[in-house]
Amino acid sequence: MSGQTQRLNVVPTVTMLGVMKARLIGATRGHALLKKKSDALTVQFRQILKKIVSTKESMGDVMKTSSFALTEAKYVAGDNIKHSIRENVKTASLKVRSRQENIAGVKLPKFEYFTDGEIKNDLTGLARGGQQVQACRTAYVKSIELLVELASLQTSFLTLDEAIKTTNRRVNALENVVKPRIENTISYIKGELDELEREDFFRLKKIQGYKRREVEKQRESAKAYAEEKAAEEMSLQKGISFVSAQDLLPQSNNDEDIIF
User: Mean of the pLDDT values across residues 28-54?
Assistant: First the structure.
């Protein structure tokens, strides 16, 4: 794009120059703030990415342990254990709640697990394989905790990714479009104001020349009037005609200049 298309269509005045300078200051500050926001979000994004990687790495071992514990419980207590567990469980003891965390103006969703009420199925499988059942329950509770943490991290990861893309688009727009356009507009206004100043200077010079010519004309008129008065006085004094006095007047003036 050329510089002509990158400037705003404004009237080149001093007031508009002040407005454009104020807009440039605002755009510069906004660019700096958005850049800091982008950096802060990027740091948080990388931290969340590291946590996701470590959580997924530990998730495999935890799920493997949970599956193995379930297999042990079924082997010891038999397949009918699921019916007794369903009879004893009325409401969920492990629940999830959500909250929001503000990171540089971006609200990230956070999921937390908590225990609601007392656990009423501690005696499940006590008659047969109770220890394995409780071990299986403990393993799956840990799996749920990791799943909730992973869901929280994954949701925050996606939200941060979208926020960083939006912020970077704004930063690039301010840096590559808005600020250059305002700077080109300021340069255009300054050039036009300089041109107007040169035109005013030329106009003043013309006016001064016209006034100087008028003054010279007035001086010549005054000189002619003085010569006419002198010729009239000479004609009265010497008793000659006015025309003869005018003819003698330059000669007398030359004589006076020579004598001087």
Answer: 91
CA 115 to chain CA mean position, Å:
46
Are 129 and 83 within 8 A, CB to CB? no
Domain tally for the chain?
A: 1
Q: What is the model's pTM?
A: 0.62
Residue-level pLDDT at 83: 64
Torsion sign (Cα): 175, 180, 185, 187: positive
Q: Give the model's pLDDT for residue 36.
A: 92
pLDDT one-digit tens code per residue, 123-153: 454 455 667 777 877 888 888 888 888 888 9
Cα–Cα distance measured from residue 6 to residue 42, given in angstroms and rounded to the nearest whole number: 31
Name every residue whose Cβ is closer than 8 Å to that of residue 134 and which is 6 or more positions away in sequence.
122, 125
Neighbours of 111 (CB within 10 A): 18
**Distance between CA atoms of residues 110 and 113, nearest Å:** 10
SS3 sequence of 87-150: HHCCCCCEEEEEEEEEECCEEEEEEEEEECCCCCCCCCCCCCCHHHHHHHHHHHHHHHHHHHHH
Q: Residue 159 pLDDT > 50, yes or no?
A: yes
What is the widest separation between alpha-carbon atoms in the chain?
164
Give residue 65's domain range.
Answer: 14-192
CATH number for position 182: 1.10.287.3240
